[in-house]
Structures are given as structure tokens and as C-alpha cells.
Amino acid sequence: xxxxxxxESETKVLEFWLKKKIYEKQKDKGKKGPKFYWIxxxxxxxxxxxxxxxxxxxxxxxxLFRYKRMQGFxxxxxxGWDMHGLPTAWKVMAKLGxxxxxxxxxxxxxxxxxxxxxxxxxxxxxxxxxxxxWGVWYDxxxxxQPIKNEFMEGVWWAIKKAHENKFLYQGYKVxxxxxxxxxxxxxxxxEYKEVTEDSIYLKFKIKGKKxxxxxxxxxxxWTIPYNLGVMANPELTYSRVQIGKEIWILAxxxxxxxxxxxxxxxxVLEEFKGKELxxxxxxxxxVNEVPELESIKEKEPAAFTV
Length: 306
Fold this sequence. Notes:
Oligomer: single chain
Strand order of the largest sheet: 7-8-10-9-11
């Protein structure tokens, strides 16, 4: 028996599908059926798929569309691409040897944009071939491309309509910032790395209590001068612990590690859930160094509260 050659079989099947227009015939078969719509959550045209893309598009979505076609649905399966954004810009910057926004402006923004468009289309063509090799039956020939004017103008039209209907508002939001590209970064453009950080414990004096303190742990001590609040887990168990003449409030699970660091004798006076700490007020640290904290206390009643 001849040994099975998957690569050869793959090539023959793909050639057969394309030559005989099998995908198109199956779509035509369901044209009079009920509509089944799907909008592609597109991959970036960065040049290479990874295993997550295969899992998403080939292993999960493509079988669903095939199943719906077999049920007689007219499946809207238009493919698409994400062609704007930092992944494309970074690739083109590396290709051109450009390292900063200033260098982009020096070479000309229009020229850089054209290079990005060219790169996106080239990568789209390469990645479309991978789609075919996976056997994914999407409408690849009519895949939407956000770099086309019709799509950019469609976005502006949607923003205009949202403005006319008073759906837009102006506000503030903390955003991740890329110092290299000098622009905001989306969540999916961020990567988190597990690191070992130095940390410190702080004592916040509880307002109205003599020698009673909140013990707070942080890895960001530089934020303390403008600290405005302390968080406690409402479901965790906390303890009131006597240390000499002082009473400390801290998480039950942190008592042993903290006391081991300090080598102090202690006595647990009480245990309670973190939700009971809600509303406790404390005195801000460094109030002498940061006099603005006094005015914040007057303007913001909820400041310096658990």
C-alpha cells in the first residue's frame, strides 16, 4: 500500500475545490434559505498566523458555517482584515529602519502611509493563501479591507450619526501609552510579564482612633504622595492585631509574614470580613510634604477612605 502523503493530498483537494468551484456551489445551494450572518473579527495583516488564529478561524468558526450551510442557511461568511494600527506600523518601521515618530515625519508621513498600505496588502495576499491551505471556506475574494476609502468613510459616517444623535460624550479614561510610538496602545497590544517586584508595607493612621493603623501593602510606593484611597477585599478575613501599644488592621493571611519580617510579638484581638472596613477614614501620609492633600480632603469627602 502506498504511504499516505498529507501534503500531496492537501494540494490535490485544494486544486479540486478551486477548479470545480466547490465553495461557490455550496453557497449557491443555500441562497434561498434563511440568512445566517457573521462578521469576521479580523486578524492583523502582520504576515504570519499563529496557532490561536487556526483555533479561532479554522477549528471553531469554519465548522459552524459548514454546518449551517448543510442546514440550508444562506451564510454570510465574508472574511476581513485588520490593516491599521501599531502592528503594521512597527513592521514597516523595522523594514525601513525607522525608529521614532520624528524619523517618520522626516521621511514624510504620506510616504510612510503608502508603505504601510503596500505592506498590508502584501501580507493579506500571503495570509489568504494560508486560509486556503487550512481549508477555511470564507468569502476571501470579497474580504473587507479597512484601508479602502469606503470603509474609512463608513467609520466617519457612523461617528457623524452618533454625534447627531447625541450618543458621543467627552470624558477621561486611563490609557496605556507607548512611549516609542508616542500613541495610545490597545489592550490586545500589551503583553504582561511576570516579574519579582520590591514592595513595602505602610501604616495609615485610622482617623479618630488612638494608635490604630491600617497596614497597607504596595509595589508602587511612588504613588503614595497622592494616595486617595485604600482597597480591601470584602470577602477576605482581616484581623485587629495588638503590637505593643499599637493596634494594626491587616489581612489574616499576612500576619505571619509581616511579623516574621519585623520579629515582633503580637496578639490577635479580633477577626472580621473585609466588607466591615468599608467607610473607615484614615489620615493621609506626607501631608506636610504635599499640602494639596488638605484641600483634597475638603473638596472630596470620599478621599482617604477604605
